[in-house]
Amino acid sequence: MKVKEHNDKSREKRLWAGPRDLIIIGILSLIAIALLLVPSLISPANDIQVLIYHEGKVIDRFNLREGTARILSYEQNPEIEIQQWPDQTIAFVKSDCPDQICVNTGKLRKAGEFAACLPNNFVIVLESISDAEGVDAIV
After folding, report:
1. Is 47:129 a contact under the CB 8 Å cutoff?
2. What fold characterizes domain 45-133?
């Protein structure tokens, strides 16, 4: 009977996580944050290429350069405006689609980001220039 009573008391005293567990959780959290930051540190912002797609075909390709500001409009749909800002960002700023999700996506600035206006079949994709020139597959 005393043994059972002792086990119940020890269960009440146990913490969810001890000091060692908290250290391990902290280390794993730091590793996860570092892995999220590494891609942005590897590819600098000045090595970004912008691809504009319409119906799956590239209609424009240019480098995202600091200090360049312009508004882009394409003959495929002149109602869509894409703006590039001097701080090396780009975004949809105007569209005739009903939901305006593309406009509300905001500015794109890092390789791997994209925005799409699906009703009008427009997509903006940012990719690293080194990725664009690299090998697709080794056979």
Report:
1. yes
2. mini-chromosome maintenance (MCM) complex, domain 2 (2.60.320)
